[in-house]
Amino acid sequence: MADHTHDKLKVVGRHVPEDVTDARAAGYDVDNPVTGMYEVGVEVEGAFLPLVSYKASDVFERIDRAKAEKDKTGPTADTQDEEQQ
Questions:
Q1: What does DSSP assign to residue 29?
Q2: Is residue 22 within 8 Å of residue 11, measured between CB atoms?
């Protein structure tokens, strides 16, 4: 059985925007910063290894929804603890 050489990997994400040199030629009125893909992966000795990718617009939409929901429900126990310190 192989030994584990990197057992403490951190999961990271990165936005890989669509390469649009001329937004109008691609059918956009303006450059959209949420085009492209969002990759989730690990970094091994400086090399990013993607595990899965999602449409960036879907990821950012989910993030916005989660933030809006959090704002509606108020602070969580974690944020209340931070505010008291």
A1: S
A2: no
Residue boundaries of the structural domains of the chain? 11-74
Q: What share of the chain is helix, strand, coil (3-state, %, to 5)?
A: 30, 25, 40
Q: What is the pLDDT of residues 20-73, one digit of tens each?
A: 666 666 665 555 567 889 999 999 999 999 999 999 989 999 999 999 998 888
Q: Contact 44/9 with Cβ under 8 angstroms?
A: yes
pLDDT at position 77, please?
A: 57
CA dist list (Å): 6 to 41, 43, 47: 14, 10, 13
Sign of CA dihedral 1, 4, 14, 40: positive
